[in-house]
Design brief:
alpha/beta, Rossmann fold, 2 domains, six-stranded parallel beta sheet, 16 helices, globular
């Protein structure tokens, strides 16, 4: 019998949890599963869901009709998953993409955080299986909710076809190379949690460094204003759907985040053979221990330049090839989807 796999997300867009869901959907399709994607509110959509049996908004009747493996992502779908759990007709699982309390405490009133945590904790306790995306995240939940057991299932990225660099980035990159500069790349949301503004003074202190910022968000205007002082050394490229070709060309990815679950962009950097300079948070230390790169003090940035020099010193062609092997062995679909696939046996 063909396994049925249903993904439930808050919206249908290109945010991080949905990018993970899309990889899961493709991996399930490759195994011959029947896959549907249900969402709770409308979004801009995606153009990479060919082959799915259904892509539509969740209906009330789905509470009774869903069969097989049901996989929820994020707060609202997880609350719904608590209602779906407990039926012999389906297995309900969730993936916690971040450290729940650490993320919600940035920008939300304390009472909202407390209420959300209480509801979420009760909902996921009813589910058949829970996954976190890193060992660090697993420890986070073991400490805060010891009654909940989370297994680890790393985020993964599938191989992609070779593609050309977007023209504005290619032109800018050529100018930086002509000037003899080291080129760093940031990929992600331009928000307070990502801590991007903290890097700019370190960049300003070394005229041999250049930075391309790929992404959009509430701090874009602020970053544009700050970047004017650095002239051509900073490029705000906006959203880049496929950062792989760029990561193959730059010297290093830099990610100064205050909190992360397991950043997909580091997986994309591994796939491209690009070393990563990462903020000194638990999940980044985990990735550094696996060989993805080095960490730096993202609060004071006292060791930013020293750690960058150390990272670049070891980024030989052989080392970059080793990063690609790390992706293949740890973060490719064959490995990443295995914990989910085991539930359909």
């Amino acid at each position: 019998m063909t396994p049925q796999y249903t993904l439930i997300t808050p919206r249908l867009d290109a945010t991080g949890p949905n990018n993970v869901a899309a990889e899961l959907a493709r991996a399930a399709l490759d195994r011959g599963w029947q896959v549907r994607w249900l969402y709770l509110s409308h979004g801009p959509g995606r153009d990479d869901l060919a082959g799915l049996a259904e892509v539509r908004r969740f209906r009330l009747s789905d509470l009774w009709r869903l069969r097989g493996l049901v996989h929820t992502h994020c707060l609202r779908p997880d609350l719904l998953g608590g209602l779906l759990a407990g039926s012999s007709r389906r297995t309900v699982i969730t993936t916690a993409h971040n450290n729940f309390l650490a993320d919600l405490r940035h920008g939300y009133a304390r009472w909202k955080v407390g209420l959300s945590w209480s509801l979420w904790r009760r909902a996921v306790a009813r589910m058949d299986r829970r996954f976190s995306v890193s060992r660090a995240s697993q420890r986070h939940y073991a400490r805060l909710a010891p009654e909940l057991h989370f297994d680890v299932a790393y985020n993964f990225r599938a191989p992609v076809a070779a593609a050309a660099l977007p023209s504005p980035i290619a032109t800018w990159l050529a100018r930086q190379r002509a000037a003899g500069r080291t080129v760093l790349a940031y990929v992600g949301t331009l928000s307070t949690l990502k801590n991007v503004s903290a890097m700019l003074p370190s960049l300003a202190a070394d005229p041999a460094l250049a930075l391309v910022l790929c992404g959009d968000g509430p701090l874009r205007a602020t970053l544009e204003a700050a970047a004017t002082e650095l002239g051509d050394r900073v490029l705000l490229a906006g959203h880049v759907p496929q950062p792989g070709p760029m990561l193959e060309q730059v010297d290093a990815l830099v990610l100064p985040s205050l909190t992360e679950g397991l950043p997909l962009v580091v997986v994309e950097a591994l796939r491209a053979g690009c070393p990563s300079l990462l903020s000194n948070i638990a999940v980044h230390r985990e990735l550094a221990a696996l060989g993805a790169g080095l960490t730096f003090d993202h609060r004071r940035l006292t060791d930013f330049h020293a750690q960058l020099r150390a990272l670049l010193a070891r980024a030989t062609p052989e080392h970059r090839a080793g990063l690609k092997r790390l992706w293949e062995n740890r973060f490719s679909p064959a490995v990443g989807f295995a914990p989910i696939a085991a539930l359909a046996r």
